[in-house]
Amino acid sequence: MKQEVKIPQATTKRLPLYYRFLKNFATEGKKRISSQELSDAMKIDSATIRRDFSYFGALGKKGYGYDVQYLLEFFRQTLDQDEVMNVALIGVGNLGNGLLKYNFQKNHNTRIVVAFDSKAPMEGTTISDIPVFHPDRLEEMYKEFGAELAILTVSSRSAQMMTDRLVKINAKGILNFTPVRLSVPDTIKVMNIDLSVELQALTYLVRNSGK
After folding, report:
1. What is the pLDDT of residues 189-211, one digit of tens each?
2. Rounded Cα distance, 173 and 207, in Å
3. 110-159 pLDDT tens trace
4. Of residues 12, 62, 17, 13, the one with CA closest to residue 35
5. What domains, with CATH codes, occur in the chain?
6. Roughly what angle, to the nearest 10 degrees, separates helices 46-54 and 35-42?
């Protein structure tokens, strides 16, 4: 992503959503949309959308709204949708298995190309057409398959140890599904997804709605 202004992480996380909904609008034949139309579709406050867009300059015109094709092309380039990035999955338990079956290549600019699991044989096996190796071969196979990002779905006790190994082989980013807050240098980007926290937050919202 090329910009001088530092984009907040909350905004960064919404960029793929904007791209997805803009593709829907384009498929429906929409030529232009307002921030309110996008707000109604995405259930995001229109002021938030306008603020997010403002980080990237003048993407629309007052009284006209936004040109759908222009925005679609802008976000496609911003998200590097034409360049696929290879991903390594570390930990093939229930969650890891689900990620392998889904994989991201069909709908996104990322794809899982290799996985690692402590139950896998040293010579490797295949799950959902993805080669899976024992973690002892992480450094070797991570580089051989050209992985740049890692998805971490291991146990909490193994999370930092595996992260330290990823740091040494210059992983660019980690999508962390463990509850551990990883210690990494500034050169590595980490996004944390704690399903238990998200579920607790949802439970709170449900129980307190309408109060």
Report:
1. 999 988 887 788 778 778 877 65
2. 36
3. 899 999 999 999 999 999 999 999 999 999 999 999 999 999 999 999 99
4. 62
5. 9-78 (1.10.10.10), 85-197 (3.40.50.720)
6. 120
Distance between first and last Cα of the chain: 42
> What angle, 0 to 180 degrees and rounded to 10, lies between the N-to-C axes of helices 9-27 and 35-42?
100
**φ, ψ at 144 (rounded to 5°):** -60, -35
- Secondary structure (3-state) at 101: helix
Residue with tokens 């911003």: 78
Return phi, psi of residue 175, to 5°: -95, 110
Task: Residue 148: name the closest of 80, 56, 73 by CA.
Answer: 80
Known binding residues for NAD(+): 91-96
Torsion of CA 166, 171, 173, 174, to 10 degrees: -20
DSSP-derived pairing of the beta strands 85-90 and 110-116: parallel
The token pair that represents 60 in the structure block: 């629309």
What secondary structure, in 3-state letters, does 38-59 show? HHHHHCCCHHHHHHHHHCCCCC
What are the distances in angstroms from CA 116 to CA 92, 102, 113, 191? 7, 17, 11, 20
